């Protein structure tokens, strides 16, 4: 009888020990409090990384079960949400075809979780999705970073950066996949997530590479609750990051004259009255009046709709050409 009880105690001890180690998983990349797990393991030498995990919610009423299945010697991840109300539900993992690890972080109120994934190649393609466990589409993660992406494009315009590619920079303004988005924490009341948005650190982005911003984003609307520059992000949320965040150097932009030649910049225009006629006068005209050397100016006269161009040289002297 005593030996039988001893065997039971040993089995319980081993089981609890395995559960605790599984709950911690691999070391996360972005969110310090998250649990990381491998997406695929390509060969036998990596099988030890693809180990089953149970990630319980803070209230312990729900959990995420991570398991693996072998197909042609490749281990593929399977993620399931387990709740008392709905039982077991499959969760779609972003970019399930690539080598690397994802990480999962429950909200404090246990009603949602976020998943960080790397859909690129080490320095780009980072995405974050949010899953609401009471949603009918809990398996499909919500992308709540659209407003943040638009703000990044506005804050660091790619077509004004030093050494930018004139064609690719236009794609960067229309495709959010060119910017990294990673969740680093939940707000304390679970009303939103904290996202770090980054311009990938590669030369294709020219003078804006490595720039970063922080956003507190409302769940599930995706509205920006608070916008943080790099210094503010580090000061408030470094404690939630799994790495030491470095404030990037200031962005570098092309001179205005270069941007004008490429058609990316149009001078701001003001309106004024002169003897009853309205003139549209740009900044360069004002510079001319102050005797500052500029390259060119254009004036549109109403009536007549005639364009007048002036070539300006150093010292403010100029010649005037007009046309219809």
Number of helices: 6
Structural class comes to alpha+beta
Strand content: 25-35%
Question: What is the radius of gyration?
Answer: 28 Å
SSE string, helices as H and strands as E:
HEEEEEEEEHHEEEEHHEEHEEE
Largest sheet: 8 strands, antiparallel
CA-to-CA gap between the ends? 108 Å
Structural overview:
It is a single chain. With 324 residues, the chain is an alpha+beta fold. The chain folds into three domains: 120 residues, no CATH class; 90 residues, 2-Layer Sandwich (Phosphorylase Kinase, domain 1), CATH 3.30.200; 57 residues, no CATH class. Helix content is 19%, strand content 35%. It has six helices and 17 strands. A hairpin with a 5-residue loop joins β6 and β7. The longest helix is centred in the N-terminal third of the chain and has 23 residues.
